[in-house]
Amino acid sequence: MTTMLDIICRDPIVARDGRPFGAGQGNRMRSLDWPLPSVLAGSLRTTLGKTANRDFSEEAAQDLLQVEVAGPLPRANSQLYLPAPEDCVVHPEGRRLRAAPQSQARGGCDWPVTGLMPVGLTQTQAPEDFKPAQAPAWWPLDRYTAWLAGEDIAFDEHFLGTPEKEERTHVKIDPAVGASEESQLFTTAALALSHLPRLRAGDKATHSQTANGVRQQQTFAPIMLSARVRANGWCGETVAKLDVLHPFGGERRLAHWKVAAEVAAWQCPPKLRAALGQTQRVRMVLATPAIFSDGWKPGWLDDALVGSPPGADVAMKLVGVSIQRWKAVSGWSLAELPGQPRGPKPVKRMVPAGGVYFFEVVEANASDLADRWLEPTSDDEQDRRDGFGLAAWGVW
User: Fold this and answer.
1) Domain residues of the chain, as ranges?
2) Which helix (H) or strand (E) holds 173?
3) I need a surface site. Which of 134, 217, 229, 334 has the fewest CB within 10 A?
4) Which helix (H) or strand (E) is 236 found in, with range?
5) Separation CA 156–CA 140 (nearest Å)
6) HSE of 168 in the Cβ direction (CA atoms, 13 Å)?
C-alpha cells in the first residue's frame, strides 16, 4: 500500500550533525542544512507505533522497520522540489552551464578507478576560468524536468534557498536555588521548515540580501514536507488514516502528519519518460543522500563499471561522476534487535544529494528507468527502506 504524506512543521526542526553536544562534550549544537532521510523514517515509525498503541516489542519493531519511507522533499504550490544538481554550473554573469563528461585530451581524472572521464565544461562554454556562483538549493519539478531533458532554464522567484537556522541560547538551572548556574550556557540550532526563502531577482542564489549596504526584505514561500510511504498490515492501515500531531526530529519539535490529497507529485513527468526512450546516455541525480558499499561508487556496478540499479533491468556503464565530498551519518538504535543492539549506530559515508552519475546504456531501453523515478538506489536494503539514494533520471 502506497500513501503520500504531507508534514507541516509547526516548530523549527532540530536535525543535528554528528559533532558532540551535551554535558562535558560541547555547548553548541550545530544543525544540518536539511533533515536526513533517516530522521524522517525514524520519526514516522515512532509516530505509527504510538498512533496504533503498539508496545514497541521486537515483533512490532520488525514490522516498523519494513515500512518504506521516501523523503523529505519540499512541496509548494502543488509542486515537488528537488535539490540542485551538481552538473549545473552558474556563471557569475548568471548563465547556467551544463557540465558533462569530456575527453581526457584536456586533462585526466583522479578517481581511483580506470575508465571514467572527467566531468566539466567545454572550451566553448568556458573560454576563461571563473569562480562559479551558487545555484538555488531547491528547484521546482517543472524546471528540474526541463533541465534533465536537456533544455535550458532561467532562475526566478519559484526557486527556493536553504532553510534559515534559528539559534536559541539556554541556561542551566541550579535546582537548589531555582536560578541559572554561573557560566552554564549552551546554544541549540533548528531549521525553519514552514517557509523557504525565494530567489530574488538579481540574487546569486545566496542569502545575502543587501544593496548599497542596506539589507533588503527577504520574501519566503510557505512549504510543507512531502513523503512517500509503502507499508502493509497494521502499519499500512495506520498510515492510510494518519492525521496527528507528533514530534519530527530531535527535542520533540511538533509537526502535523496527514495523508496528502495529491499523489501525482511523485510520478515521473511524461516529458522525461519520452526523452529517456530516445537516448543511450542517461544521468542519475540523487534527490536524497545515497549510501553505497564502495563509498562513492554504487555496489551494483562491477569492476568494469557496468550494472543495473536496484529494481531495474537496464544495464548501464558509468562514464563520469560529479559529486561533492562525502558526509557522515550515524544515529541511535532504541530497539534491541538481532544483529542491531541498542545504542549508537556505526558511522556511514553518504554521497550528498544533488550528485550526478553519467551512464551509457549497454542493454535494454532507458525508458524503463522512468518506472524507477525517485526510487532508492542505495546498496543495503534497509538503507533503501529508509529512503537513502532516491534517484531522478535524465539525459545528457
Assistant:
1) 2-395
2) strand 165-174
3) 217
4) helix 233-240
5) 11
6) 11
